[in-house]
Amino acid sequence: MSIIKISVGLGQYIEVDSSVQHLDLSFQRIKALPKQISSLTRLKSLNLSSSNIETLPEDIGNLIHLEVLNCSCTRITHLPESIGQLKNLRELHLSFSRVDALVTGISELENLEILDLTACLIRHLNIDFSKFKKLRKLYLGYLSIKQVPDSIGALHALEELTLNNTKIAVLPQSLAHLQALKKLNLNYTSAIQDYSIVFERLKELQDLNLEGTDIKDLTIYKPLCSKLMNLNLAKNKFKFFPAEFTKLRHLKSLDCSNTALEHIASLAGLDQLKCLNLSNSKLTSLPNNISDCKGLVHLDLSNTALTQLPRNIQSLNNLSILNLYNTPIKGLNTHYLSFCAKKVFAALEKIQRANDEILEQREIENNTLINLLLARIKTELLLDMPACEINVETDLAANAIRLSIVGCLEKETKHDLFNKISLYLKGILPLQVYLN
Fold first, then answer.
1. Which strand (E) or helix (H) includes residue 173?
2. Where are the alpha helices (DSSP H) in 8-164?
3. Alpha-carbon dihedral of residues 379, 382, 384, 387, nearest 10 degrees?
């Protein structure tokens, strides 16, 4: 068994024996690998990320058992042609490196599953993707490329593709052949004028990011990707959200924030939707059938033109976060107040149940328990009543607390809320509760 010394700068060395299988040289000052590196024939993973390395040895292809090669965030400018000999390579990471072209040998990596070229200096993808039969993840974001080879359609095992922040103007028609694709990131590809192939042909798509793509009209698209779960349409220019999109019955997250959105035709049938972000839009009202969104947990309406909430919003029993910051709602209507009250008292009951066991065991001192209860109450109430803020001052010596409730709540509602919290706390510990 032989020992290889690898210089990591400043006169320091790392000793590696020839039987090593995993070698991590990340964040080291190493500029080049020693010639003996090719003798590490049992090596399965080599991590050079964020090191000072500038070149790879020409005979790196001798590492025939190598499965993972990570050269991300390095000064490497090119790959040796022998890289095509790494027949067992499954992952090749070159993100944020200085690689400006791909050698032809890279097409011989028939077992490659992950190829990460994010933010390299590559301007042209002179690569035949058809040989990558097992490729599952392809990251091409932040490249200065203007087109994608048609051969990308041959990646029948591809599940994740990123093309964000590129200069691509036209999506290749062969993209329609990626029937295993589940996640697609196209954000800030504003040069593209037509995304029809994405909405209409990628039937297995679950996660679609179209943020900042300057989409002006959603009505021209027929959303047939029925398995879509996450749709990001933020920072676009469309004004109308068509009812056609309610066919996406598996949708769990919809982001239309920072858009020109003025009207939502319908939200009917989106009962699996959990997160709806409409913030920083020009929206003036919500459709009454928002009540169909029974699973909604997070609704962000901040910085919109909403003047009132639908009467049936109180039917959203799973809603935990409702953000109404900087909306022109003048005083919260009774429907919203009853909704808040219901959520608050449900939260208090949940806290009561959570503390029953603690109280029975009496293992926590009163002062500690006060802080624990108040922390939980504040957390619950701040989530469920975003229109108000509850501040707490404690006097542990006297077992007393002082509450201040700030927000656009009517005086009677504020006192009612205070009384409920006060009674709840007094029912657990001998406390004096004051309202500022």
1. none
2. none
3. 180
Angle between helices 334-361 and 366-384 (to 10 degrees): 150
| 323-336 pLDDT per residue, tens | 888 888 765 554 55
The three-state secondary structure class of 47 is strand
75: nearest Cα among 92, 58, 50? 50
Backbone angles phi, psi at 280, to 5 degrees: 55, 35
Question: What is the full DSSP assignment across 370-414?
Answer: HHHHHHHHHHHHHHH-TTEEEEEEEEGGGTEEEEEEEES--HHHH
Token reading at 155: 């990646």
The 388-395 sheet, strands edge to edge: 388-395, 400-407, 432-435
Going by C-alpha positions, the residue among 88, 87, 95, 85 that lies closest to residue 58 is 85
Rg (CA), the chain: 29
Averaged pLDDT of the chain: 84
The pLDDT tens digits of the residues spanning 242-295 come to 999 999 999 999 999 999 999 999 999 999 999 999 999 999 999 999 999 999
At 6, is the secondary structure helix, strand, or coil?
Answer: strand
The pair of structure tokens assigned to 107 is: 């097409």
Distance CA 33, CA 278 (A): 52
pTM, full prediction: 0.78
Residue 370 half-sphere exposure toward CB, CA atoms < 13 A: 21
Amino acid at the residue 46 = L
β-strand partners of 4: 16
What pLDDT shows up at residue 325?
82
pLDDT (average), residues 88-92: 98
Give me 47's structure tokens. Answer: 């991590």
Give the residue from 215, 216, 166 showing the smallest Cα distance to 188. Answer: 166
CA distance 7 to 50: 16
Given a contact cutoff of 8 angstroms between Cβ atoms, the answer to whether 348 and 420 are in contact is yes
Neighbours of 435 (CB within 10 A): 14
Rounded mean pLDDT, 395-417: 61
Alpha-carbon distance of 365 to 356, in angstroms, equals 15
Distance CA 22, CA 10 (A): 24
Could you tell me the two tokens for 190? Answer: 């504003």
> With left for phi above 0 and alpha for psi between -120 and 50, is residue 430 left, alpha or beta?
beta
Centre a 10 Å sphere on the Cβ of residue 283 and count the other Cβ atoms it contains: 23
- Residue 152, classified by CB atoms within 10 Å of its CB into exposed (0-12), middle (13-18) or buried (19+), is buried
